[in-house]
UniProtKB/TrEMBL annotation:
Pfam families: Asparaginase, Asparaginase_C. CDD domains: L-asparaginase_II. Residues 236-336 form the Asparaginase/glutaminase C-terminal domain. SUPFAM superfamilies: Glutaminase/Asparaginase (SSF53774). The active site is at T13, T95. PANTHER family: 60 KDA LYSOPHOSPHOLIPASE, L-ASPARAGINASE. Residues 4-203 form the L-asparaginase N-terminal domain. Keywords: Hydrolase. The keyword Protein biosynthesis does not apply. InterPro entries: AsnASE_II (IPR004550), Asp/glu_Ase-like_sf (IPR036152), Asparaginase/glutaminase-like (IPR006034), Asparaginase/glutaminase_AS1 (IPR020827), Asparaginase/glutaminase_AS2 (IPR027475), Asparaginase_C (IPR040919), L-asparaginase_C (IPR027473), L-asparaginase_N (IPR027474). The keyword Hydrolase applies. It comes from Comamonas sediminis. This is Asparaginase.
Amino acid sequence: MQPKILIIGTGGTIAGMADDAENPGQYRAAQLSVAALLAGVSGIETAAAGPLDAMQIAQIDSKDMSDEVWHALLQACDAAMRDEAVRGVVITHGTDTLEETAWFLHCVLGRLAKPVVLTCAMRPANALMPDGPQNLKDAVAAAAALDADGHPLLREVVAVTGGGELHSARWLQKVHPHRLLAFSSGEQGPLGWVDGTNVRLRQGYAPQAADTEGGYTGSAWLAALPAPASTPWPWVEIVTSHAGLRLGLLEALQAQGVEGLVVATTGNGTVHEALLDAMARARQHGLPVWRSSRCSDGVISDAVLPGMADLDKDLAVALTPYKCRVSLQLALVQARSKI
């Protein structure tokens, strides 16, 4: 039997319903199952160029995304990567935290032998002109796309977010609360576009080479990240440097047991003077404190992509504060488990 595209549902606006189709801004997210979404997309089997399957692992508004849902997604994606009957994964997701989920999966799944594509919508499913069906169809086409040698064209975590744009998990950001093209990759731009069943990559983008050693070998994070209900994942919070900042916030978080802090800095890594001493004291007490710019484009000039060895450093991180929080959480998990 021909391998299938697996669609994993988590809820979001793409599965939402408005009480009044002419007022789509007022709606309830996560009302339709992923199977119902698939049934409403004309020609999606053609886009898949083969069979489709669906599973529902959550039914939430993505503003409420949790470690528990991330853990379930990791398990489902890991199983799909190992399953020869699956040739690609599409995840339906809300827009609010899509960039964080995409970055989490990018970090914990590692090098992929087949694509993981997230997609979303800015309008509910029953709007007069919903954007979800086209986005879902485009995501399926991206997951099914093959290169000239018959290998999956995409071997990384990506997102189809509207207008056929295809974005890397590394750069993806939600940048607008209302418009249909609500996402951007900033200065990097999209990595490609979907036009019908044709997937066109940006000039100069080099897809990862197929793994000649047997493809995906499994995520080491499955053992390192236990079910959050039994063993909570490390608690990491974001503190923003801003005008009029008052003393005491970092100390209050420490008193509550926070395990790591990300400071969303102004400009090129600068921090309000009220925070500087508190950050230094926190590090002296063994609390990891990483810096990320709150600017929507660009990164701090000396920023790097972090790892476990950077827990005790005054580190500028080349990620948004939200993705930086995910990376610090995972670095703390690494330190616990020594993976």
